[in-house]
Automatic annotation (TrEMBL):
<dbReference type="InterPro" id="IPR002293">
    <property type="entry name" value="AA/rel_permease1"/>
</dbReference>
<feature type="transmembrane region" description="Helical">
    <location>
        <begin position="309"/>
        <end position="342"/>
    </location>
</feature>
<dbReference type="GO" id="GO:0003333">
    <property type="term" value="P:amino acid transmembrane transport"/>
</dbReference>
<feature type="transmembrane region" description="Helical">
    <location>
        <begin position="233"/>
        <end position="254"/>
    </location>
</feature>
<keyword id="KW-1133">Transmembrane helix</keyword>
<dbReference type="Pfam" id="PF13520">
    <property type="entry name" value="AA_permease_2"/>
</dbReference>
<feature type="transmembrane region" description="Helical">
    <location>
        <begin position="448"/>
        <end position="468"/>
    </location>
</feature>
<feature type="transmembrane region" description="Helical">
    <location>
        <begin position="69"/>
        <end position="93"/>
    </location>
</feature>
<feature type="transmembrane region" description="Helical">
    <location>
        <begin position="37"/>
        <end position="57"/>
    </location>
</feature>
<keyword id="KW-0472">Membrane</keyword>
<dbReference type="InterPro" id="IPR050598">
    <property type="entry name" value="AminoAcid_Transporter"/>
</dbReference>
<feature type="compositionally biased region" description="Polar residues">
    <location>
        <begin position="1"/>
        <end position="20"/>
    </location>
</feature>
<protein>
    <submittedName>
        <fullName>Amino acid transporter, putative</fullName>
    </submittedName>
</protein>
<keyword id="KW-0812">Transmembrane</keyword>
<feature type="transmembrane region" description="Helical">
    <location>
        <begin position="266"/>
        <end position="289"/>
    </location>
</feature>
<feature type="region of interest" description="Disordered">
    <location>
        <begin position="1"/>
        <end position="29"/>
    </location>
</feature>
<dbReference type="GO" id="GO:0016020">
    <property type="term" value="C:membrane"/>
</dbReference>
Length: 506
């Protein structure tokens, strides 16, 4: 058992002057995460994280902003290509540094050349990830799941707020429990849920193909029209990009993927390519079955599609399918985000207790439970749409720093072996797109409340960083808390694999 009486990460990792000797001496007894996720499970996790409720509801929004079917298909295709380019950038970083944490780990590596202040950017990335983007995403997935399930019972009116929240809490807790069992169990759950998602969407596509030989509304509507406006197309891109979000989860669990040099790039390529084909095929099926006015006027396009093709049972089938899709994304989020918290705990940016893994199953149990606790808290907040806009801003800002880190590591780790190297042109394109996603919202009147909240959390993070990271202050009772958690959950600190990799490659 170790104490949390200091903030130096070397107190609980092998990141010190004798790390190589410690590693050799400890051998198999050194606590490490286990590489138990193969290519199929990694791809299923990616698909499970990406395909949530978006493809069942956002096509209508994309169509209204695009103005024509042709522009819609271009938007979904371009977003798929841009996502794949982002995936290739992450494939280089993920195979270079196959450690837990994804962007956080890469920012740590990129900041090494700045010396003792190089951890500022990764700290604030972890801070905002922990307090805003991740728990908010989990809460919304739980609430979306709840609203679709309850729509089967409350068909003519919205469900009571209390009932909606209680159901969301129940299934958020279930997702937490499933991820607390073992890595293999979590991966198998994702295999099943991702298969169900793909089967549902393939059913929609096949139904569209069959319907095309009967009544094809795609032929009744002009492919391109003069109604398309550049300003609106930008918002169409935002809607489509939202439906592709979550693909970077693979890099969060890189430390648990078998043969990461091969499986990380292929999981990203297979997963994103499959999702892009499914999304385009699903949109074409919608346009074949439904006329343009119906698509533009409905917010539940999948329900309208099923009602027009599958009959009255659609009122029950589609909500269940969307709920399963949301639950799959919720579970996949737990699998990935807990590893970011684990990485931050190892680096001393979070309390020591979050660097613990279970002694038997090698799970970051404390981080999983923290994610569940924060998600439950956000479930009670209610409507936080304004904060979501701020969340998109933060995600795009992270992408900018990650691509810049890729360029930095090309120099600081010039001689390190790279199983995959993304073409520099694609990396520059990804950087420009990320900058555009940050700037474009400010070209029109915006609601600044979300940015005020971001600044408040930024200030709070700055205080925490100075007090507990720089001055290494210790909260009274932290040592006793660390002892208690270790005994209760049978956890131990884990090896800081990232620091070992950096010591070898820098």
């Amino acid at each position: 058992i170790v104490s949390s009486s200091a903030k130096d990460p070397s107190r609980y990792t092998v990141n010190n002057s004798n790390s190589e000797d410690v590693t050799k001496d400890s051998g198999a007894q050194t606590p490490r995460l286990k590489r138990e996720v193969g290519l199929v499970s990694a791809t299923a996790l990616l698909i499970g994280a990406v395909i949530g409720s978006g493809i069942f509801v956002t096509p209508s929004t994309v169509f209204r902003n695009s103005g024509s079917i042709g522009v819609v298909l271009v938007v979904w295709s371009v977003c798929g290509v841009l996502t794949l380019i982002g995936g290739l950038c992450y494939a280089e970083l993920g195979t270079l540094l196959p450690a837990s944490g994804g962007e956080y780990a890469y920012l740590i590596a990129g900041g090494k050349w700045l010396g003792k202040f190089g951890d500022i950017v990764p700290f604030f990335h972890a801070w905002f990830f922990l307090l805003i983007s991740d728990p908010m995403s989990a809460a919304f997935q739980g609430l979306t799941f709840s609203s679709y399930i309850l729509s089967i019972v409350y068909r003519s009116c919205p469900p009571p707020y209390t009932v909606n929240v209680l159901v969301a809490l129940a299934f958020t807790s279930l997702a937490t429990l499933l991820n607390c069992l073992s890595v293999k169990t979590s991966a198998r759950v994702q295999d099943v849920l991702s298969s169900i998602k793909c089967l549902v969407l393939l059913s929609i596509i096949i139904t569209g193909v069959v319907s095309a030989f009967r009544e094809n509304h795609l032929l009744d509507t002009p492919f391109f029209t003069d109604d398309t406006k550049a300003a609106n197309v930008v918002f169409a891109f935002y809607g489509a990009i939202f439906s592709y979000s979550g693909w970077n989860l693979i890099t969060y669990i890189a430390e648990e993927i078998k043969n990461p040099a091969r499986n990380i790039p292929w999981a990203l390529i297979f997963g994103i390519f499959t999702i892009t084909l499914i999304y385009i095929g699903t949109n074409v099926a919608y346009f074949v079955v439904l006329d343009a006015s119906t698509i533009a006027s409905t917010d539940a396009i999948a329900v309208s599609f099923a009602a027009a093709t599958w009959g009255p049972l659609a009122a029950t089938v589609i909500p269940i399918c969307v709920a399963i899709s949301c639950f799959g994304s919720l579970c996949a989020g737990y699998f990935g985000s807990a590893r970011v918290m684990l990485a931050a705990g190892r680096q001393g940016h979070l309390p020591l207790v979050f660097s613990f893994i279970t002694s038997k199953t090698s799970l970051p149990l404390t981080s999983i439970l923290l994610r569940g606790f924060l998600a439950v808290g956000y479930t009670f907040v209610g409507s936080v749409e304004a904060l979501i806009v701020g969340g998109v801003f933060l995600l795009s800002l992270t992408d900018v720093f990650v691509v810049l880190t890729l360029f930095i590591l090309r120099f600081t780790m010039e001689d390190a072996p790279r199983p995959y190297r993304v073409p520099i042109v694609l990396a520059v394109l990804r950087l420009l797109v990320s900058v555009a996603l940050i700037v474009l919202p400010f070209l029109k009147p915006v609601e600044y409340l979300q940015y005020v909240v971001i600044m408040a959390i930024l200030t709070l993070g700055g205080v925490y960083y100075v007090l507990f990271t720089r001055f290494e202050l210790v909260v009274p009772g932290s040592r006793q808390t660390s002892y208690f958690v270790q005994k209760l959950l049978m956890c131990v600190p884990s090896v800081n694999e990232l620091e070992l990799m950096l010591k070898e490659k820098l």
